[in-house]
Amino acid sequence: MLKSIIDFHAWQMHVYAEGKKAESVLGQVRRTRVVRAGNTVEQMVRAIADMIVTGQMLPGEKLDEISLAARFEVSRTPVREALRELGAMGLVDREPNRSAVVTNVTENYLHSMFEAMAELEGMCARLSAERMTVDERRQLEIEHRASARLVHRGADEDYAAYNIEFHNRLYRGAHNDHIYELVTQSRARLAPFRRAQFRLPGRLTKSYAEHDAIVTAIIRADGAAAAQAAYSHVEIVSDASAVFAKANVE
């Protein structure tokens, strides 16, 4: 057990002593954030996905390649690639010889995806509690504590970027390549909805508290508690994200 190797209180003192390092880590996270508009495929996917999730583009609305190419100042080739990726996410439907249209993402469908995601994340958290190295646990806590600064500032974009890295650490910490592949694929499909949750009032503070329960369990090598905390976290994210699915069909 980890507690037999390192005294928990000494661990805490060491973590807080690494404040400067934490600032550097968060700086790296902020630099990797995806901008909200732009002309790369990745930027277009995010921009269009955000418009779909937040109801700026409604179910059944046509996504004309020429209009999108003009909007993003690109050729039609990257637009086609962006629409293909949006189709893989389940946000866009496209039939042969027809224009792409915005999918009607129902609340039930969204719930089913989050239900699967909760199971996978719970599994990753449990395995992380059992398998993470001492250094992996230390870095997880350092970055988690440092993210409180983003919450205090209300920096939702920066926190959303950090949140991706936080969950990626759980996936890598499971030390299982097959599970990593499954969970990252599932997360990619839910990314627009998971990102949208941070638009809701008070969500950053709640997310930090939920992360805290996961981190505490992992540090203590408590697999059952880590799994339950991670599962509950995704369930709450599901409820928060469902707000947008409801808005799109009302």
From TrEMBL:
Gene Ontology molecular function: DNA binding; DNA-binding transcription factor activity
Stretches assigned to the HTH gntR-type domain: 38-105
Entry keyword Ribonucleoprotein: no
DNA damage among keywords: no
CDD domains linked to this entry: WHTH_GntR
Keywords: DNA-binding, Transcription, Transcription regulation
Signal peptide range in chain numbering: none
Gene3D superfamilies: GntR ligand-binding domain-like (1.20.120.530), Winged helix-like DNA-binding domain superfamily/Winged helix DNA-binding domain (1.10.10.10)
Protein name: DNA-binding GntR family transcriptional regulator
Organism (species): Rhizobium paranaense
